[in-house]
Predict the 3D structure of the following.
Amino acid sequence: MNLLQAWVQTPGATALGWTLVHSLWEGALIALVLAAVLAALRSAPARYGAGCAALALLAAAFALTLAREMPPPRPHLPIHAIPAWVAPLPDKPVPAARAWTPRDLLGYLPWLAPLWMAGVLAFQLRGVAAWLGARRLRGTGVCAAPGVWRARMDRLAGRARISRQVVLLESCLADVPVVIGYLRPAILVPVGLLAGLPAAQVEAILLHELAHIRRHDYLVNLLQMFVEGLLFYHPAVWWISAVIRAERENCCDDVVVATEGDAYAYASALTALEERRAMTAEAVLASTGGSLVKRIRRLLAQPEGPRPGLAPVFSAVILTVTLAGAMAAWQTRPAAAPQAAPAAQA
C-alpha cells in the first residue's frame, strides 16, 4: 500500500486522473455529434464509417489529452551541483481545521489512475480470453466440409473478390456460422447446416461471412475490443461500439443482396438461421450478429428508423455535470499569495 500511495502522489498519476476527467466530456461531445450524424445518414457503409471514426477519435482524444497533461521532465541536477550554502527549508506550519470545499475533491483525483488501470487490465484479460476461446473453437471438434462445398466456397470467394485461401469447416461446438482468424481465415458452420438448409440459403449465409473477410472486420473487431477495454468506464464507448457492430452486419447484408440480387431469399435464409441462433464469443463474427429482426425488416424495406437510444442523453448529462464540476473547481482554486510588504527603512 505504501508503494501505491507513493505512486499516486506522482505527477503522472495526477495527469492520468485529469485525463480521465477530461475524457468524460470529450466522449460525451463525440457521442452527441455522432448521434446527429447518424440521424442524417441512411447508408450502412457511411454509418459504419462514422461509428469507426468516432471510436478512433475518442481514443485519439484520450491519448492527446494524456500527452498534454503530462508535466515536462525536470532537469536532474547532480548532487555536487547543489551549493553547500543552501539552507534547508523551514517546516511548514500545520494548517488549522477548515470547512470542506469542492476543491478538496481534487486531492482524490490521482486515485482514479490505479482504479482505471485495474479496470483496463480486467477488460483486456477478458478480451484475451475471448480470443483464446475463438482459437479453441477453431481447433476443437471440427472437420473439413464435404468436397462439393469446398468447391462452392472457392467459387463464392472468387465472386467476393477474396484472394486469400478461406477454409470451410464443420464444427460440433459452433451453433451459428462464424469467422475466425485474420491471416488464415476460416468459416465454421454447425454440423448439419450444410445439409439441413437449401443450397441457395447456405450460399447466401457463406457470402455474408466472406463479406466479413473481405472487409477485414475480424481485425477491426479486435481493435474495437481493445478500445472498449481502454475506455470501459464511458457509456458513450459502448453505445458507439453497438452502432459499429450493428452497421457492420448491415454492410455485409448489403453485399449479399448486391451479389445475389434477391433480398427476400436472403431474409428467408436469416429467418431459418435464427432457429440455430445462440450466444457466441465477442472475438468471432457471426451471421446472426446484431438485432436479427431489425436486419430482416431492413432487407424487406421496412426499416424501423434510427433509434439513438439513451446513450446521447447520458452523454449530455455527463457533459453538463463535467462542465459544472470544472466551474466549481475553477471558482474554488486557491488565490494567489499576496506579495510581502517591503521592510520599513530603519
The beta strands are 142-144, 167-171, 178-180, 186-190, 285-286. The two ends are 55 Å apart (CA to CA).
